[in-house]
Amino acid sequence: MISLFVSSSGLTQMHRGKQVLKGGSDLARFFAITTSAVLILTAFLLVKPADGETVDPGAGPARRVVETFLTDSHFLNSAAGIFAVSPDNKRVAYRDRVGDKNRVVVDGKEGKLYDGISRGSLVFSPDSKRVAYGASLGGKCFVVVDGKEGKRYDGMGSGSLLFSPDSKRVAYGASLGGKCFVVVDGKEGKPYDGISNGSLLFSPDSKRVAYGALADGGWFVVVDGKEGKHYEGMVAAPMFSPDSSRVGYRANVGGKWLVAVDGKEGKHYDGILAAPMFSPDSKRVAYGATLGGNYFVVVDGKERKHYGGIGGGTPIFSPDSKRVAYGALADGKWFVIVDEKEGKPYDGIGKGTLIFSPDSKRVAYGARANAESFVVVDEKEGKPRDGIMAAPIFSPDSARIAYGALGGGKCFVVVGEEEGRPYDNFLRGGRIVFDSSDSIHYLAQKDGGGVYLVEEVIAGPGTAP
Question: I need a surface site. Which of 126, 137, 157, 271 has the fewest CB within 10 A?
Fold first, then answer.
């Protein structure tokens, strides 16, 4: 089982230089450290009786449960880390080995056998209806989308395969004859010396494409086929604003890092901790930075208070774009800052757990103190748990909160402070989803058996503490 927590020293290390991007090899180390230094959120898992059976005992007096079998558990070993959960959290796909061959199994249906399946390539479309992955056969690599094979290439960009937000388009990086390029909807783009790993993305409206590229010793961002300014150092992953009109990215200049938004460069820093974050209304920009051993958040071009570290996955904007929250480190303790007000200090803040409610009025996050873990909602600590296994999430009406917890060696979903049925684990890659303000679903596993879709209807108040 993997908890969302890391010790204070671990989080400090992540934001004390080792997460700072300082060149090509450091970019790779950044992603590796983000995964290893923080015990990353692995989604969730739960249980089964007979398929579709309604279960009341153990689920709590105000919760009804229906479980549907999705797949048996052998894929957890066979997949060797190559599996995916659909965005709607109702489908599972994984790599299955058959002798010296490999195939992808989706919803229990076996695909064609290949020499290999590319790690990190198996993806569902945002609408959860389509599946794509990279495969190899006879020394060539290609993409398989909805069971159809694409053109053969010498290689594929690691983790580059993606669907557009509207699920209609497909893009990925490829190499042929010593050159690299991006393929969008089957059309090859301009060849370059290199394509930055993890940089390829569609705009939220699915109409635009951006990525980082290398040519003649210089790095730059390509947006809609047009090259931006060339830099001597690495250009990190670009980001589109929610309205798709703006583009921001990180760039290295003379050993320093800066954020450029709409072509306008910001102040130079020793490091930029993560990609710039646009507010939901697309008007504001925030990011973490470091200079002279200090760490701080920059919001709309203005530096905020300096600390000993900035929490991973932060800062974040509220849905109404008016509020900013982030985690920070001072005197060996971590705390959350909301609207520039510092919260209570803890031994650790769960990476990826900080969240605003849909109405922007409430804040929740996972915290750790004295070897106990708990969720903090509106500055009030919930019941201590052995671990927080799935990040808190608010209901659409902002009244309820749900999260995954560990207790007595079992995992369960907590709604308000009511514990659900105990399970062996939560499935990595899944998540808790509110289907309405009084119903949730998630994926679960038990008794070394299968993976189940667990759907719950919540009766009674069940409000957050």
Answer: 137
Contact between 290 and 273 (Cβ < 8 Å)? yes
The predicted pLDDT at position 450 comes to: 78
Residue 33, φ and ψ in degrees, nearest 5: -70, -40
CB atoms inside a 10 Å sphere around CB 225:
11
How far from each other are the two terminal CA atoms of the chain, in whole angstroms?
A: 26
Which range has the worst mean pLDDT, 3-17, 116-130, 377-391, 408-422?
Answer: 3-17
Token code pair at residue 148: 């159809």
Structure tokens at 56: 């009341």
Q: Which domain holds residue 411?
A: 1-73+312-324+337-465
Among 276, 281, 247, 88, CA closest to 167: 88
User: Which residues share a beta bridge with 372?
Assistant: 369
Rounded Cα gap, residues 422 and 411, in angstroms: 5
Residue ranges with strand state E in 128-263: 131-137, 140-145, 148-149, 155-156, 162-163, 170-176, 179-184, 187-188, 194-195, 201-202, 209-215, 218-223, 226-227, 239-240, 247-253, 256-261
Which of 302, 221, 313, 305 has its CA nearest to residue 262? Answer: 221
- Sorting pLDDT into bands at 50, 70 and 90, what band is 48? very low
Q: Does residue 118 fall inside a structural domain?
A: no
Q: Please report whether residue 406 resides in a domain.
A: yes
Residues in the chain: 465
Please check whether residue 413 lies inside any domain of the structure. yes
- From 112, 125, 35, select the one nearest 81 (Cα to Cα): 35
Instruction: Return d(Cα 410, Cα 388) in angstroms, integer.
Output: 12
Q: Evaluate whether 3 touches 41 at the Cβ level (below 8 Å).
A: no
Cβ contacts of 306 within 8 Å, gap of 6 or more: 294, 295, 296
The single-letter code of the amino acid at 66 is V
Query: pLDDT tens digits, residue range 180-234?
Result: 999 999 999 999 999 998 899 999 999 999 999 999 999 999 999 999 999 988 8
CB 456 within 8 A of CB 69: no
What does the pLDDT read at residue 46?
27
What is the spatial distance between Cα 347 and Cα 325, in angstroms, rounded to a whole number? Answer: 18
Which of 81 and 325 is assigned the larger pLDDT?
A: 325
pLDDT tens across 330-340, in order? 999 999 999 99
What's the domain count of the chain?
1
